[in-house]
Amino acid sequence: xxxxxxxxxxxxxxxxxxxxxxxxxxxxxxxxxxxxxxxxxxxxxxxxxxxxxxxxxxxxxxxxxxxxxxxxxxxxxxxxxxxxxxxxxxxxxxxxxxxxxxxxxxxxxxxxxxxxxxxxxxxxxxxxxxxxxxxxxxxxxxxxxxxxxxxxxxxxxxxxxxxxxxxxxxxxxxxxxxxxxxxxxxxxxxxxxxxxxxxxxxxxxxxxxxxxxxxxxxxxxxxxxxxxxxxxxxxxxxxxxxxxxxxxxxxxxxxxxxxxxxxxxxxxxxxxxxxxxxxxxxxxxxxxxxxxxxxxxxxxxxxxxxxxxxxxxxxxxxxxxxxxxxxxxxxxxxxxxxxxxxxxxxxxxxxxxxxxxxxxxxxxxxxxxxxxxxxxxxxxxxxxxxxxxxxxxxxxxxxxxxxxxxxxxxxxxxxxxxxxxxxxxxxxxxxxxxxxxxxxxxxxxxxxxxxxxxxxxxxxxxxxxxxxxxxxxxxxxxxxxxxxxxxxxxxxxxxxxxxxx
Amino acid sequence: xxxxxxxxxxxxxxxxxxxxxxxxxxxxxxxxxxxxxxxxxxxxxxxxxxxxxxxxxxxxxxxxxxxxxxxxxxxxxxxxxxxxxxxxxxxxxxxxxxxxxxxxxxxxxxxxxxxxxxxxxxxxxxxxxxxxxxxxxxxxxxxxxxxxxxxxxxxxxxxxxxxxxxxxxxxxxxxxxxxxxxxxxxxxxxxxxxxxxxxxxxxxxxxx
Lengths: 501, 208
What we know:
The complex is a heterodimer.
Chain A lengths: L2 H9 L69 E8 L6 H5 L12 H13 L3 E10 L5 E10 L3 E9 L7 E11 L4 E11 L10 E15 L2 E17 L18 E15 L5 E17 L15 E15 L10 E11 L9 E14 L2 E14 L38 E14 L7 E14 L14 E11 L2 E6 H8 L1
Chain B lengths: L1 H5 L9 E4 L2 E6 L2 E7 L6 H7 L5 E11 L7 E12 L4 E8 L5 E5 L2 H9 E9 L8 E9 L4 H7 L20 E4 L13 E5 L12
Parallel strand pairs in B: 1-11
Antiparallel strand pairs in B: 2-3, 3-8, 4-5, 4-9, 5-6, 6-7, 9-11
């Protein structure tokens, strides 16, 4: 018997449906009209317009009894030894950086499951668009070479893209970039800036701008410990209007005459941490900033409460501890999992700081499916005690989709609105429902419509009355979010509306 | 961003689709199906099956009314394919509810393709489930499916500490960008083929 026939016969699970032919393939039937594949005939429906199936009415003679089916003993497991692990397709990524994430090693016995896990771990680094594995003969029988064939992907992302216009600032914009695999070693380098130019009505004044840069090593192996380390720098030059009313209506649009606090922040942060688990990170950071503040009374008219900042030069030195947990299944469109970020920051004269305060923040987000689509619940609570500078407090408009009033969400902690009311306490609760729109684009690879609602409660002082940053307690949003090879983009109606309200 | 739009980005993988040559019949009061999976067995897939590692091919066959509606019958089969680089032979193991395990060995990819293409006599269940209308067979062929549990085990927190900003600090604009993360878990479209047969008459009814 032809070996192929023998192999096919071994796969037969019951008696053939048609009258069996002795020498032909087990599954050929007399009424079948197959467009046979190249290797062997197979039973297929006729390709005619009605595509009739072969019918087997019960009046046909009973087919021959099925061959007895018995479970075959399992095949003896292979015991090939991995002589060498080879990577092919690496251009920017260093091989040692990729090897760190493998669960197989040279000299070990080849196990399919561990190879699969290694492949998944490489894919989930985000460095490769494709990872394929295969085995080749080694130098001697029993030895194999395990090959990982990879295709690198772009790791330069857009992290910020800011455009806006307000009364006090006719136009401002900004851009942020992040290289997620710097030098091919899994390091991260990022930078961002926002620029607004001179304030409205004061062309001779210094421009408002903010810039930050960061460097992070998110996974440093030290023995059996996995550490996190990073540094960042910050330069902010801004102004906070201090009109008696939040919208500076007394100045009739002449924002150049309004009183203001002009300030500058120059500093940086160093952080180090550990990874207690695959989805956790615990970091401690020390932040040092040189501050300068100057109150400009404008045209001499009355002014409102000044944002908290020492006049002249001052120093801010603060320690913070941050715990992060994130096991969401998809950071672009999560349908399950939890995001939790808890942070405590302390500043004291013990740290040579001119400010004595503590700051607490907790952010939560969880997702689950509702009617087959992802629903995210979001929450935030923040408390600032003591004489925290205004930028260490909470700006309620940052937490809502829009504010009915002059407040506008800040850009890189720069406030371009006329509302300079910061809160000592802020809480936000919200929900966002996602309607997936497409999933297999070329540049716009995935997209969904996000329908969200948030409510924010804030107070200028702990235990104080609710602040009125918005005359509406609720903010809504409809946003188109798109996942692209260079980052995630968000076209938000709420943000657009915020510029006009 | 305009420059980025002009670059030739590779498309995210979508499941392959094709027509499924198939026939449905009745045997001893049960629905049986014969399939030809050759439309799914393209050269890249056959090369992957010969990678020297154990490849698991899951085949799920669904019988449903041609006009739409819930499935009438379902059957599943798991096929393991292992190419031994030293023996230079394929070992194919088939498991389904009919047969716990059947094993065969072939030498060349052509024979492997022929063996995998001819999937016959899948038991789709009792004939009482059939409705009196035309039917279609749909087959889902997935190579090395990854369970969500395994993805969960291999995932890690990858966002960098400095990328997300402080909790409570926002940045909004008309065209705003939230932090772009690179976490990508293997999607089902990587090794997935969806096949659908032409309309088939109900077994036991006259052919049109």
